[in-house]
Amino acid sequence: MCSTMIFLGIFVAVLSQVYTLPLKNTTEPNEGKMRMKRKYSDEIKDWDEMTAMDQILVVNSRLRAPRGITVRDGDIASTFPRSAISCPGNTCLWQKSVDGFVYVPYIMSPLYDDMDRITIETGMQDISAGTCIKFVPRTHEVSFLDIQPRYGCWSFLGQTGGSQTLSLQTPGCMWSGVAAHEFMHALGFVHEQSRSDRDHYVTIVWKNIMPDQIHNFRKQATNNLNSPYDYSSVMHYGRYAFSDDGGPTIIPRPDPYIPIGQRDGPSALDLHKINVLYDCGANE
Description:
It comes from Periophthalmus magnuspinnatus. This protein is an alpha/beta fold. The protein has a single domain (about 45-284), classed as Collagenase (Catalytic Domain) (3-Layer(aba) Sandwich), CATH 3.40.390. Helices cover about 25% and strands about 15% of the residues. Strand 1 (about 70) and strand 2 (about 75-80) form a beta hairpin.
């Protein structure tokens, strides 16, 4: 009986020591654990890494495009099933006024509340403050943006003529950086990593991309405006955009640790490129 009690005492003591040992960090990779699959960019754990495009892809991952509209490259709308997105010869630019400014008329859905309107108008102001682009409420203009809380965050590329929808779903798209991103599409800009010269600056990791989303990484025949590649552009995909296996789909080169994309609004180079494209001149 005494020996049994001694044995039980030793067993309890050992067991208590085991429970006080630090647990292994289960987030570290190990042989028996595969990477969890990531759907688009919506499982980014670090808020600081969340870009405007990441948020757009989170919202648009549940998007069913309206009838007659195809959404390509994640958020660029088209009424034609084109294999490429382009604005040949700058034919989709908004007209410049004789006073040197480019006025982009818009109407905004009454379904937005006051905070939504402030967010959207902040996205406009972030562009207007550094360029000759001025977003103005529509009066009688034939061509204008119709800003609607449709399903998802998307825009047509440049001016298409007449009324053109620009969708900013609430609350999912209610980031001023997301609004600015879609307004830049409406001004005629594609995503930064779609540039014709992008392979000099980033490596696309094709094997990590969701197979049915590979088309979103095609290069476009872009006018790069003699401007440097902009890793900090609000138009840049995030590092894990459309990732299939949790690994990065875009790696900067030559320094793989350069941050890419952001959510704050147009970068200095974004504004510079708008000014070059629209020949803002002294208004830059």
